[in-house]
């Protein structure tokens, strides 16, 4: 027999067992031969299902994202929610006008043949033992602790366990009543906060909504009806409890039979305890009221009284549990499989030195291969989305920017103060001799000034590139060694060390290159002479332009707008020599810049190759074998985060396995009914 039809049979049997009108309590007694049929049936067939659910709750399976079917009590403020729960449990809960329930109260009633009821209040990490006399105060104290002393609410639930002889085995959640207008001490958005909390609880399909309506109210205007309808349009998981029947008996019969608000599971009218009445008296008064009241007695007996409500809830609870069991089992299986595969995907625990060495070799190999791909071969399939790791392209961009910077810096601007520096230097470098010889000192001083002017730029470039390379290397190392905490520390440190060393080496090379450019002027490049000759072809024209009084001219090789107005005071010999000096420098400066850029690029690539092929591995190995590292054994130690993750997953797998067992067993049992 299918599990659902089996439970339907149980439920039919439950509803067919009539409630004795003189049985004033929702009493479930134990083991006694005279127990009413509902009770023995209950004990035999429903109790095991509830025990199974209780086990699932104990396992805290909701933490694994699996919902446990429950009955959630909702209602407008002061509609009588807590009073209904009180009536079912036969204990006092905080009641009154204004907001009393300010946190979700999970009430777990368990029928047990104990001489004295046992009450336990659990919240956060606390467990408070209490009794019937003090439970209301204990709840108030816990509520204040969770939601503060004013009238605010909190999402953190309180769980009240009630083990008592004769209570129905039910688990219900009482939620704060819906209030539209904040009272003093309540936040302005109290309505939204309460609504959000209620919706979270009633949305899951596994929830039975117990909608508490006051007979004094027009049901069509009840906010709680609107909320439950928004998640349960057909009303098939909503049961209405109408409280305060004693206060407003007029028209109640018509209201519950007309069902204007579409309550799929029907109505049960009750009369709760008033003031200091005892529970026994309250039940008696309730029975008398629905038996004798001229208007209320017309309501069908299957729709009145707390015992009927208890019986309906117990049946519904069993039904919803059974309905959800197959789906729950599927979800548990899915979750179990995904947790197991995640657990398996975690790196193997290193148990021996051989394991550790193998892991070490594997990490070095992977780091080298990844770096070779991204830094040397320009393959970025391992980082398709992360542009920063498309290293060859990023390095080309850096090199281009460096070249642009050198070509656009003031030292490379040949138009500014045209011939001014050259004239001044020639003046200072004069010597006794023939006038048509170019003094070499003037050229060298001019060159030195320029080289000094740009000397910080290559160093800046080198630093920038090594900063970038360091980030890349560390990112790659971290990725490949993330599961091996100690090894990760050692490899990262090695990466940083080797890069610091190579950075210093590169800087030294660049400084040397700059110094060389400062002290020597040499090139074998024929372009120098070709360009020089081209530029010198304009020498006499320039002198003519100056003396003809031009302000700005176009000079071949320098372009438009070269200012020459300031040169009028100089004679042709000075101008010719200064022009010659300038043109030599222009041609040579191009060669200098090209040399600086080309050699920097070549050296950088050479360093990157060395880093990837040799240096990094050498450094890591020496760190790994150094006494300060702590030996191979230290590799066997797992990182705290990985150990935590492994423990968490193992716990979760254990809970899910146990839950699976619980659910499978109860499904087998139900199917055999
Ligand atoms: N006469 C009468 N009064 C009732 C009945 N049910 C509840 N009350 C009273 O209505 C008031 C509100 O009842 P509660 O049970 O505190 O209502 P609640 O919905 O839990 O209140 P909040 O959680 O604060 O929204 C209390 O004074 C109860 O005594 C009933 O059936 N008859």
From TrEMBL:
GO cellular component: cytoplasm; membrane; microtubule
Residues in GED domain copies: 578-671
Ion transport as UniProt keyword: no
SUPFAM superfamilies reported in the protein's UniProt record: P-loop containing nucleoside triphosphate hydrolases (SSF52540)
Pfam families named among the record's database cross-references: Dynamin_M, Dynamin_N, GED
Entry keyword Nucleotide-binding: yes
Domain Dynamin-type G: 65-326
GO-annotated molecular function: GTP binding; GTPase activity; microtubule binding
Superkingdom classification of source: Eukaryota
Alphabetically ordered keywords of this record: GTP-binding, Motor protein, Nucleotide-binding
Gene3D superfamilies reported in the protein's UniProt record: Dynamin, middle domain, P-loop containing nucleotide triphosphate hydrolases
InterPro entries in the record: Dynamin (IPR022812), Dynamin_GTPase (IPR001401), Dynamin_N (IPR045063), Dynamin_stalk (IPR000375), G_DYNAMIN_dom (IPR030381), GED (IPR003130), GED_dom (IPR020850), P-loop_NTPase (IPR027417)
PANTHER family: DYNAMIN, DYNAMIN-RELATED PROTEIN 4C
Designated name of the protein: Dynamin-related protein 4C-like
Organism whose genome encodes this protein: Acacia crassicarpa
